[in-house]
Amino acid sequence: MYKAFLIKYGEIGVKGKNRFIFEDALVRQIKFSLKDVEGEFDVRRADGRIYVNALSDYDYDEVIESLTRVFGIVGICPVVQIEDNGFDDLANQVINYLDKAYKNKNLTFKVNARRTRKNYPMNSMEINMELGGRILDAFPEMKVDVHKPEVLLQVEIRGDVINIYSIEVPGPGGMPIGTAGKAMLLLSGGIDSPVAGYMVAKRGVQIEATYFHAPPYTSERAKQKVIDLAKIVSKYSGPITLNVVNFTDIQMAIYEKCPHDELTIIMRRYMMKIAEDLGKMSGCQGLVTGESIGQVASQTMASLYCTNEVCTMPVFRPVIGFDKQEIIDISEKMRGKDLKTNSQHKEIQKVKCNIYGMVFIPEILGEVSKILKQNNMYNESRTMIEKATLSYSYDESIKAIEEYVEITKEREEEEELE
């Protein structure tokens, strides 16, 4: 029935002379979202509208699902497009549309006609009244309700083409990806960081991600969990480069040289600095984390101050004021429910932080100045940090193209020199 979709956007509509930049970005993102959908589509913008035209048979539900993951879209309207062959033909097409779209005709309705072509022989109010009368004649069981209709029939007369639609599927809103710079997401196996990445991407920010892997203390299952979460985020943000950092040597060096009651904070400072370095190399303008104040001991104000101090880039924390249930609600919206059960989450968090079978918890109000003194270790391990990174590049349906490599040679050479 539907051969086209009318795409509605929100904030883009208030842009000025650069509006076309945002529209083009939205068109590109729509094309990307549809590339794995069966069928052939033409995406174009015309007269302040964006249309997705189906050039072949397609799966309606699959198209709708793909479009509801495109940031910048506020509404997806399956539309019937007809040529202007006079009002009588328009009325017949509208009646045919309602007959096919609604099996149960015991509904209230309202007609809302708009014209961009002002030389049409009838004005908008006349079209509303005349079409309403024709609909009542065809379907006596239907009733008019201009305040809260069950069916809001939209009729748009644009040039020689008329759009007829009454269904609007809500989109995610936000801004198109790539219109607000690029940021590095510190991605873990929990749900907080994927939600943070989702929220920043919703504002048009392109996302790259970094994950810290510490074999054998972090399992391959935990790494695969992170890859799966990155794939979920990529359904909304587009392709993500995932940097998997081998953190074992750095983690062990911190364990050997630093006070044990400060290990977590110091490790987090290293992670922030490494992520910042990777971000600078790839053109990122900020870091993104899933930290929420007070959620765990390493996310107190004092602890966040310590981790922030090591960075020169701005650090964005989209879920900083959210409680856990609010974060879970967004994760479920991202269709990540199957990847975030409490038992899995707790197990992965335990594996991530475990060294020699001991789980280290930072001091809740740790002495900031004391921890900052550990910063001189960073330069000593600079080469080790540079050797510890390997990039993964994949799309939502493709696994990582390479396996990470363990970096041990550099440390062995350092030990020989000592």
Written overview of the protein:
With 418 residues, this protein is α/β, with parallel strands linked by helices. It is 40% helix and 21% strand. The chain has 15 helices and 17 strands. The strands form three sheets. Strands 1, 2, 3, 4, 5, 6, 7, 8 and 9 form a nine-stranded mixed beta sheet that branches. It has a six-stranded mixed beta sheet with strand order 14-13-10-11-12-17, sandwiched between helices. The protein has a two-stranded antiparallel sheet with strand order 15-16. Helix 5 (192-201) runs parallel beside helix 6 and helix 8 (263-281) crosses helix 9. The longest helix has 19 residues, at 263-281. Mean pLDDT is 82; it is low at 336-374 and 389-412.
Topology record:
Elements: E1 4-9, H1 19-34, E2 41-46, E3 49-54, H2 60-67, E4 73-83, H3 87-101, E5 108-115, H4 124-138, E6 143-144, E7 151-158, E8 161-165, E9 169-170, E10 182-186, H5 192-201, E11 206-213, H6 220-237, E12 240-246, H7 248-257, H8 263-281, E13 287-288, H9 301-309, E14 315-316, H10 324-333, H11 342-353, E15 354-355, E16 358-359, H12 368-372, H13 377-380, H14 382-387, E17 389-394, H15 409-417
Parallel strand pairs: 5-6, 5-7, 10-11, 10-13, 11-12, 13-14
Antiparallel strand pairs: 1-3, 1-4, 2-3, 4-8, 4-9, 7-8, 12-17, 15-16
